[in-house]
Every structure is written in structure tokens, then in C-alpha cells.
């Protein structure tokens, strides 16, 4: 999978290039930075690991990531956030939009970025534990609030549910879980039936009527 920065901050671009040059052991292609979404979409439609520069991209990173993923299915995202400008609540919201990692641009970020890149490329998350805990808590709350009596979800259905809640398409779920698209459709249909929902939009956090919360709130 190729790696591409979306952003226009020259200092950050130089720092990212220096980090990528030290990852010689990774069999990935490093694409030239894209200044904006249109330039990123115009360069390729293949899946990439996108590094989103929140300092220069003056828009909501969540919808941006969703649009880029629609153009390049299977892509992954790490949000590069200004220091002190990424609360756990904000990161949780972006996590629901399908962003896989977060890195605040403090002094140690150049040392941390290679670890974040490796983790996300390996299919893991680079997300604060508090954010993951809040996400799991909300998944459980949704199941408790919506599940019909006597209808429990299988382990595989819970995996699919978690990806649906992060706005992944059937094709992306198929790729992530290494199952065919027909099997994904079967699981999605079962999940919606067991949760008494008309369509997958009911699984988005804005629609399932649960207030955002973090551990301890």
C-alpha cells in the first residue's frame, strides 16, 4: 500500500519525508504529497495510507476521509493534529468516520510516526486507549438498546457491526475480514434484522440516539 500526505504545510511535509525515508524495510511506495483532496483523488484510485494534515486542511477530516475512501476503497488514514487540539471526544468522532490513527504534532511526533504507520499498515489502530474503550462501550450500549429479545449476534456479526459503525462499505469489510462480499451482505442483513433497523444508517452514532461519552463520564 502506498503512503501519501494530504496537506500543504512545508515544514510538516519535510518532516514526513524524513520519516518515510527511514522506513526502508517497508515494501511501500511513497507518493508525492497532495495539496488537497482533489489532487489526491486525481493521482490514483488505488488504496493508500493517507496522512491528513489538520494544520493546513481547513475542513472536517471525517467527511474528507469518507470521500477519499469512496474514491480509493480500502484506504487507511492517520490524522496529524495540532498540539493540544485533539480531545478524546474529537478523536472518537473521527474514529467513527473511519480514521485509523491519531498523532499530535508535538516534539516527539517524528519518533512516534513510524510506529503509527507500521501499526496501521498491519491492520491495527494508533488510537488512545481511552478512545477505544469509549468506542467499545458505545457498541455494547447500542446492542443493549436495540437488540431484539432472544436475538444475540454471533462473534463474526459483531466484527461486521464494528466496521459498519465506522462507515466501511461492504467491499471494505470483505477485504478487512477476508470474506466474500456475499457473506458480508448476509451478515449485514442479519445484523439489521436482529437490531430492528431498516438500514445501516441506523448504526451511525448520529442516528442511534446514544449520547457521546467517554469512560468515567
Can you walk through the features of this model?
The protein has 217 residues and is of the alpha/beta class. It folds into 2 domains: 2-127, Response regulator (Rossmann fold, 3-Layer(aba) Sandwich); 131-203, Orthogonal Bundle (Arc Repressor Mutant, subunit A), CATH 1.10.10. The protein is 47% helix and 10% strand. It contains 9 helices and 4 strands. It has helices at residues 10-21, 37-43, 61-71, 88-96, 109-121, 129-146, 155-165, 170-177, 181-194; strands at 2-6, 48-53, 76-81, 101-104. The protein has a 4-stranded parallel sheet, sandwiched between helices. Helix 3 links the parallel strand 2 and strand 3 (76-81). Helix 7 (155-165) crosses helix 9 (181-194) and helix 8 (170-177) crosses helix 9 (181-194). The longest helix has 18 residues, at 129-146. It is globular and about 55 Å long. The termini are far apart. Residues 210-217 have low confidence and may be disordered.
What descriptive keywords fit this protein?
Rossmann fold, 2 domains, 9 helices, Arc Repressor Mutant, subunit A, globular, disordered C terminus, 217 residues, 4-stranded parallel beta sheet, alpha/beta
Amino acid at each position: 500500500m502506498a503512503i501519501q500526505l494530504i496537506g500543504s504545510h512545508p515544514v510538516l511535509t519535510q518532516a514526513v519525508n524524513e520519516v518515510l525515508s527511514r522506513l526502508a524495510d517497508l515494501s511501500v511506495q511513497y507518493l508525492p504529497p497532495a495539496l488537497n483532496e482533489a489532487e489526491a483523488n486525481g493521482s490514483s484510485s488505488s488504496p493508500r495510507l493517507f496522512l491528513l494534515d489538520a494544520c493546513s486542511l481547513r475542513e472536517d477530516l471525517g467527511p474528507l476521509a469518507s470521500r477519499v475512501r469512496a474514491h480509493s476503497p480500502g484506504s487507511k488514514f492517520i490524522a496529524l493534529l495540532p498540539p493540544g487540539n485533539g480531545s478524546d471526544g474529537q478523536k472518537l468522532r473521527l474514529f467513527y468516520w473511519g480514521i485509523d490513527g491519531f498523532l499530535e504534532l508535538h516534539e516527539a511526533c517524528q519518533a512516534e510516526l513510524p510506529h503509527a504507520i507500521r501499526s496501521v499498515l498491519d491492520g491495527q489502530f494508533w488510537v488512545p486507549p481511552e478512545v477505544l474503550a469509549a468506542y467499545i462501550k458505545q457498541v455494547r450500549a447500542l446492542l443493549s438498546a436495540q437488540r431484539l429479545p432472544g436475538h444475540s449476534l454471533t462473534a463474526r456479526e459483531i466484527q461486521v457491526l464494528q466496521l459498519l459503525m465506522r462507515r466501511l462499505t461492504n467491499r471494505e469489510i470483505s477485504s478487512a475480514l477476508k470474506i466474500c462480499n456475499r457473506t458480508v451482505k448476509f451478515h449485514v442483513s442479519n445484523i439489521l434484522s436482529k437490531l430492528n433497523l431498516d438500514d445501516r444508517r441506523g448504526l451511525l452514532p448520529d442516528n442511534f440516539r446514544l449520547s457521546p461519552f467517554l469512560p468515567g463520564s
